[in-house]
Write a structure and sequence with these properties.
With 330 residues, this protein is α/β, with parallel strands linked by helices. The chain is built from 12 helices and 10 strands. Among the domains are: 123 residues, no CATH class; 100 residues, no CATH class.
Length: 330
C-alpha cells in the first residue's frame, strides 16, 4: 500500500478566495520535521511519497535542495512533480523555470479570476494579475506550456470573457496553451462565495466550449431533486493508496475536503501512531462518525434550496451539504 503525505512546511504567499483547503497561518516547520513525520507512518506503508508543500509548491528559497530532500525522505518511491508551480517564484527567480524543466515539468497551471484589481482581490495580494501575465510570458519563453484555469461566479463572469479574449491573443504566440473555466467546489474559502455562485443561465455562451465537463454541471435545484428521497448516509472513499494532508502544526486530515476541526484525524505531536492509524482505518473522526447520523434526504431538507439555479457538480454539492451540517449542527 502506498501513502502520499502532503505537508504544509513553508506556507503560501496567497490568500485566494477560492482555496478549498481554507486559510491557514504561515510558518516554517521545525528542522527534522520531515523525518519525524516519515518515521511516524513508515511502519505501516510499503511506499510513501513525501511532498513538502500543501498550498504553494516550492515556496522556500532552497526549493531545489528541498525537492531532492523530498525524494530522499520518500520511501521506496519518487514523488511526482505534477503540473503545478509557484507563479510567485516564477517572476522572482530566473533559475526557477530551468529547475522546473530539469524535473520534467512540461505544463504549468495558472489560476485567474479576472483582470487587474479583480485578480488581485481574489488572490489576496497586490500585483497578482501582473505576475500571472508575466509568469505566462516567462513560461512560454522557457519552453513550458501555460494552462489557464478560471474560476467563474456572478461577480466576475464578464471578466472571465475578457480573460478568454486575452488567451486567444496568447494562443498566437503559443498554440499549445490551454484554457478552461469552472465554478470550483463549495468548501474551504469557496464556501463563503456561495451567495455569488454562478447560475447556469448566466454562464456566458462563448465560455461554454471551454467550461470543464459542462455536461456534468447541475443546478442546485436539480441536485436537490436527485437527493430529496435518498435515504443513504454520506460515505467517503478510502482509497487503496490514501493521501493525507498535514498542517504546519502537525494536524492530520484526509484529502476529502477543507482542513477544519470537524475533519481532523489527530495530531502527530499529541497522538500515538497506533491511535492515528486506528482512526484512519476505522474512519473514527467527528465528521465520519456524524455521517452515520444523517441521510442525504435530511441534508437537502435542512440546507438545500429547491429554487436555486446555482451550479454544482453533484459530489461537490453533497460535500457542501454535509459541511453545512457539520458546521451548523455542532
Amino acid at each position: 500500500m502506498k501513502l502520499s503525505l502532503c505537508v504544509d512546511m513553508y506556507g503560501c504567499p496567497n490568500r485566494c478566495k477560492h482555496c478549498w483547503l481554507g486559510h491557514m497561518p504561515n510558518r516554517n516547520m521545525e528542522e527534522g520535521s520531515d523525518e519525524m513525520i516519515m518515521d511516524f507512518f513508515s511502519p505501516y506503508f510499503e511506499e510513501i511519497d513525501f511532498y513538502s508543500w500543501l498550498r504553494e509548491p516550492d515556496y522556500c528559497d532552497h526549493y531545489e535542495g528541498r525537492w531532492k530532500r523530498d525524494i530522499g525522505v520518500s520511501k521506496n518511491t519518487i514523488p511526482e512533480r505534477f503540473e503545478l508551480a509557484s507563479f510567485w517564484r516564477i517572476v522572482r527567480d530566473e533559475n526557477y523555470i530551468p529547475f522546473l524543466k530539469k524535473t520534467g515539468v512540461k505544463k504549468v497551471q495558472l489560476t485567474l479570476f479576472g483582470t487587474g484589481d479583480i485578480q488581485d482581490f481574489y488572490v489576496g495580494r497586490k500585483g497578482a494579475y501582473r505576475e500571472v501575465l508575466k509568469a505566462t510570458d516567462l513560461l512560454i519563453e522557457g519552453g513550458i506550456i501555460p494552462r489557464w484555469q478560471c474560476f467563474i461566479n456572478e461577480e466576475n463572469k464578464e471578466e472571465i470573457v475578457k480573460i478568454l479574449h486575452l488567451y486567444e491573443e496568447y494562443k498566437k504566440k503559443c498554440p499549445e496553451m490551454e484554457f478552461f473555466v469552472h465554478e470550483g467546489t463549495c468548501d474551504g474559502e469557496n464556501e463563503k462565495l456561495y451567495p455569488v455562485r454562478i447560475e447556469k443561465d448566466d454562464i456566458p455562451k462563448e465560455l461554454i466550449p471551454y467550461y470543464l465537463e459542462y455536461e456534468s454541471v447541475l443546478t442546485e435545484r436539480e441536485c436537490v431533486e436527485l437527493l430529496k428521497e435518498e435515504d443513504s448516509h454520506p460515505s467517503f472513499c478510502f482509497e487503496d493508496d490514501p493521501v493525507l494532508y498535514i498542517s504546519n502544526t502537525y494536524d492530520v486530515f484526509f484529502n476529502f475536503t477543507h482542513m477544519k476541526k470537524e475533519w481532523k484525524i489527530g495530531n502527530l505531536r499529541e497522538d500515538t501512531s497506533e491511535e492515528i492509524m486506528r482512526r484512519i482505518t476505522e474512519g473514527d473522526t467527528y465528521a465520519l462518525r456524524s455521517a452515520k447520523d444523517v441521510t442525504w434526504k435530511k441534508l437537502v431538507q435542512m440546507y438545500g434550496d429547491p429554487d436555486s439555479e446555482k451550479v454544482f457538480r453533484l459530489d461537490d454539492y453533497k460535500m457542501y451539504l454535509f459541511n453545512s451540517y457539520l458546521e451548523g449542527g455542532k
